[in-house]
Amino acid sequence: MNNFTYLNPVKVVFGKDTIEQLTDLIPNTENILMVYGGGSIKKNGVYDQVNSALKNHKVYEFSGVEPNPTYETCMNAVEYVKKHKINFILAVGGGSVLDAVKFIAAATKVINKDPWGILTGEVKIEAALPLGSVLTLPATGSEMNCNSVISKKATDEKLAFSNPLVYPVFSIVDPQTNYSLPLRQTINGIVDSYVHVMEQYMISNDNTPLQDRQAEAIIQTLIEIAPTVLSEPENYDARANLCWCATQALNGLISCGVVTDWSTHGIGHELTAFYGIDHAQSLSVVMPRLWNNQREIKKDKLIQYGRRIFGITSKNSNEVINEAIAKTEEFFRSCGVKTKLSEYNVDSAEAADKISRRFKERNLNIGEKGQITPEDVKDILSKC
Fold first, then answer.
1. How far apart, in whole angstroms, are the C-alpha atoms of residue 283 and residue 271?
2. How far apart are CA 168 and CA 175, in angstroms?
């Protein structure tokens, strides 16, 4: 096990009818900016609940955050924050809204530099506005981490940053707000959570048996509850367990002492940037092919995963690995997500050329040991 420091300062308020607690979670002296997406919160009652809880606060609004939040939209919000002297930002929505708010909170404090540098690593975050969230879509775990992913339309880029200064002060998670989610978003949330766990689990052996079993517990729970979540949208217990799985998948706990991977995400982000494929859809396409490409370095963990999660009993290592990969893809498809680029009208050869070229231009290798080269990326995508 590697050395680690674990700190997670987020106060999670979880359960039914918890949005009303906003009244006490934010001091009424704050100028609050409520940030949300396309307006679904006005249809499902969340908008009214938030405004009711904050009736004694000064609340401004900024809407229109995209499912893959763009730098351009975020910078419009930054100007709004400065104009109205906002000193607290409240994200009301899913992970995309939260990601946008984290960037906005940091970018607002950047002086005389292009805030895009936060994503490229050229700008160091020195300060950020405080932020909180009301989560309406379980998927990214953004409600309990300090990560953010932002896209730039002008250059077809999608990059991530992480900084402790953008941890939410609090996050309210009421599973009832998920009842009205479109099926596609619910499916994406399940897949996204699953792959988040795998990026921290499916690695070379670090002798972290506790973290392994914590990760396996999340995966087994997702597999168990997925059919109910999808067939009974208003089953509170199923929704609640999905919410907590998504949070636990990426709040940093299962990565303690572990060398993580994130190569599936690195490639998937490019598919989203170039072709507009949903984030979770891109992950479901890439991960099985990436595992096959990396089957030697991930051999022990793939076998452990196949035996523990799917109960594969074959004594032949290759058979276990093949079946584990097949069953993973089978689970994704059982949830209703497609797993081939052709099913999204994307030519795999073109994507392989375009995306591997970008990795090569950035002189970027990925994977837990930096072992995945641009040529590997090309091979992986060509088989997607």
1. 9
2. 19
Tell me the C-alpha distance between 265 and 153, whole Å.
19
Contact present, 288 and 323 (Cβ < 8 Å): no
Spell out a b/e string for 152-180, using b for 16 or more CB atoms within 10 Å of the CB, else e: beeeebbbebebebbbbebbbbbbbbbee
**Lookup: tokens for 321:** 């690995």
* 262 and 366 Cβ atoms separated by less than 8 Å: yes
Q: How confident is the model at residue 30, as a pLDDT?
A: 78
Q: Name the residue among 295, 261, 267 with its Cα closest to residue 281.
A: 267
Give the up-direction half-sphere exposure of residue 63: CA atoms within 13 A in the CB hemisphere. 7
pTM for this prediction: 0.95
Would you say the C-alpha torsion 369, 373, 379, 382 has a positive or negative sign?
A: positive
Q: What is the pLDDT of residue 359?
A: 96
Mean pLDDT rounded to a whole number for the chain:
96
What residues contact 322, with CB distance under 8 A and at least 6 apart?
none
Q: Return d(Cα 212, Cα 198) in angstroms, integer.
A: 10
Half-sphere exposure of residue 366: CA atoms within 13 angstroms, side-chain side: 23
Structural domains of the chain, ranges and CATH numbers in brackets: 11-177 (3.40.50.1970), 183-382 (1.20.1090.10)
Unique residue bearing structure tokens 């290592």: 317
Would you call 99 helix, strand, or coil by DSSP? Answer: helix
Question: Per residue, what are the HEC states of 107-143?
Answer: HCCCCCCCCCHHHHCCCCCCCCCCEEEEECCCCCCHH
